[in-house]
From TrEMBL:
It comes from Nocardioides deserti. This is Uncharacterized protein. It comes from the Bacteria. The chain crosses the membrane at residues 53-72, 78-96, 103-120, 126-146, 158-175, 181-201, 213-232, 261-280, 287-306, 318-340. Keywords: Membrane, Transmembrane, Transmembrane helix. Residues 8-36, 350-368 have a biased composition (Basic and acidic residues).
Length: 368
């Protein structure tokens, strides 16, 4: 036997490694074609939230100047209508942006409705635009508020809501609607309440987010609203002559002495609910259900100028007197709420105020 080692097969030659082709990290820039004479497309930067809010405030200020010029009167006759359309469009955009909707779509629809109402000069379109402007102003005044830790901050939020509604009142009469005053007030108040509760249903996490306190607040607010409206309607239709005469004498005395008489629904329900709701929202989300009744303050302000028999000064004084009485009642409600459910002692109350800070989006940010 041969002792030589068996021959081994030759190993195959190593295959050349394929290196992946390196793609250029930077793509070649596309230059505009100068031969064809076409200019490059410029993309405008998207403005931020603060810029949009600043533009909206600027539009509202200019529109307010146009509305005031129509009251004086100064300038052409079409100026108040243009101001009313600008306020209605801006308020619609702000309400849709605040509630997480599509502001461009709804603002375009509001602008289209306003332009058609002015161009066609139809009473139905003018009245419809006035109703939508009044309701949107009332709801936006409530939705634009933020939580308040103290009573002073809650009073500031209430004042802001009333100012927004007052500008909406000027825009409402800027469309020059032909309405029955009592029916117009009831319709705008009912639609504002419906829209506010639909939005609050989403903000307050539905009915199961009410809780015991929220349920009590809603029931009490509903009872006050029903009693106020029912008492006024029953008194107007079936009240005795002596009772109606005595009440009218009190109203006349207030108008002659103070210059105006506060609206009961604003003073008794709307302003206290808005103040207490903003104060509660800093601690619990059930405060949104209380704030929904704040449209009982903003809706009467937004439709206050629809009555031609009341002067502008009397309307302003009526709003101020109603706000003053409502703030006093709201302060009493807040103190009672803290006394019943809050901590004992001044130091404990200070600590509770410092710790109250439920997270919520800022005023210029979407709530949803």
């Amino acid at each position: 036997m041969s002792r030589t080692a068996p021959r081994r097969r030759a190993d195959p030659p190593p295959r050349p490694e394929r290196r992946p082709e390196r793609r250029s990290e930077r793509r070649p820039e596309r230059r505009p074609r100068d031969e064809a004479g076409t200019a490059p497309r410029l993309r405008l930067p998207d403005p931020g939230g603060r810029t949009k809010v600043s533009i909206a405030w600027g539009v509202v200020v200019l529109a307010l100047g146009a509305l005031v010029a129509g009251i004086v009167p100064v300038g052409p006759g079409w100026l108040p209508g243009v101001g009313a359309v600008a306020v209605a469009t801006t308020y619609t955009w702000a309400l849709a942006a605040r509630t997480g909707g599509r502001p461009q779509v709804f603002a375009a629809l509001a602008l289209l409705l306003g332009v058609l109402a002015l161009a066609l000069d139809d009473d139905a379109l003018r009245t419809g635009a006035a109703v939508l402007t009044c309701v949107g102003s009332a709801v936006l005044g409530v939705m634009a508020t933020v939580p308040a830790r103290r009573f002073g901050e809650a009073a500031r939020e209430c004042g802001l809501a009333l100012v927004i509604a007052a500008v909406g009142a000027l825009a409402t009469v800027g469309f020059e609607p032909r309405v029955a005053v009592v029916r117009f007030e009831y319709v705008t108040l009912g639609l504002a309440l419906l829209a506010a509760f639909l939005l609050v249903h989403r903000l307050g996490a539905g009915l199961h987010g009410l809780g015991r306190r929220g349920l009590v607040a809603v029931l009490v607010g509903t009872a006050l609203l029903a009693v106020t409206l029912a008492y006024a309607e029953l008194l107007r239709r079936y009240g005795t002559a002596g009772l109606v005469t005595s009440l009218l004498d009190a109203v006349r005395w207030s108008r002659d002495t103070l210059g105006a008489f506060p609206r009961p629904i604003e003073a008794v329900l709307g302003v206290p609910a808005l103040v207490w709701g903003c104060h509660m929202r800093a601690r619990r989300r059930q405060g949104w259900w209380v704030c929904a009744f704040g449209v009982c303050a903003t809706a009467p302000v937004a439709n206050s100028l629809a009555n031609p028999s009341i002067s502008l000064l009397e309307c302003a004084l009526s709003v101020l007197y109603g706000a003053a009485v409502g703030l006093l009642l709201g302060y009493a409600v807040i103190r009672a709420d803290l006394a019943l459910t809050g901590p004992r002692g001044r130091r404990s109350r200070r600590a509770e105020e410092a710790a109250a800070g439920r997270p919520e989006p800022r005023r210029a940010e979407a709530l949803l």
